[in-house]
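subagent[fold] <- orchestrator: predict structure for attached chain, return tokens only, no commentary.
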Amino acid sequence: MGPNVETRMTAKMTLSDTATKPHDRLKDFLAEDMEAVNRLIRTRMASEHAPRIPEVTAHLVEAGGKRIRPMMTLAAARLCGYAGADHQKLAATVEFIHTATLLHDDVVDESGQRRGRPTANLLWDNKSSVLVGDYLFARSFQLMVETGSLRVLDILANAAATIAEGEVLQLTAAQNLATTEEIYAQVIRGKTAALFEAATEVGGVIASAGAAQVTALARYGDALGMSFQIVDDLLDYGGTTGAMGKNAGDDFRERKLTLPVIKAVARADAGERAFWVRVIEKGDQRDGDLEEALRLMQAHGTLEQTRTEALRHAAEAKAALACLPDHPLRDMLADLAEFVVERIS
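subagent[fold] -> orchestrator:
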């Protein structure tokens, strides 16, 4: 890690724990809307004939997630002056899509922990996780159709396809040292940024906002999602289990080619490349290999470079808000972009 970056990470994480977080302020500001969204989620995740569906869904939905994505939809709609209730259905839609992808991801990644708790596939089985994820996808489409907006349906359907495409691309890029930064960007735009972008964009659309404002909200969501995922990937090599909801070093152990590793591989000499081939491509990991990976990333400055990328995207997210109305929600969304990178600033 670059000079003093790990120290700054620790200090920032400590400070952010004691300060009022922007997503908490959003939650307070949108309390009435969020309660309606939570009621929708509880109602629509029910199943008369398959009790395992609400069991599995509740395990993840009630696990203490911040609900950032649905709050972004609500905030975007309210920021653009919306006074109806369809944004609540869209917020629930976004949360269902997100939860479905998490259920599927944990099966694909063979994960054992999510949000600090055992994953659904570990507590039940892979079949239950996949099928319940499919059920939530179906529920999400029912909700978005109820708004009667073909444009909303188009945006969210495209996001769902992009998410799946990103996951498949990640499979083909996994453990392949030829993976480039461009491919990595495509992967995280699919697996994370696409839903952030759709969440804010549909909020503007349902509010009948002007084209410039809808575009600005989409750009904000995309940039925030990119920053969010890059930070998550960086923290795997410098964060704590509590901060991430997963175990530090999991990406390395799962042989994921995230940005810090991709940058290190691109700068590797013959001996260093042989190390990466052994631990990533061949999966021959031994005691001390994580520490050696960290040493190589520190030597080439790739953790600091990754941090710079995350900060750039966060700045782009804040800049995108400039044309939106002067409103407390706009300030909270700007603060959210800053908060995403606080842990590495």
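orchestrator: received. Logging for downstream: Residues 5-342 form a domain with the Farnesyl Diphosphate Synthase fold (CATH 1.10.600.10). The first strand starts at residue 113 and ends at 114.
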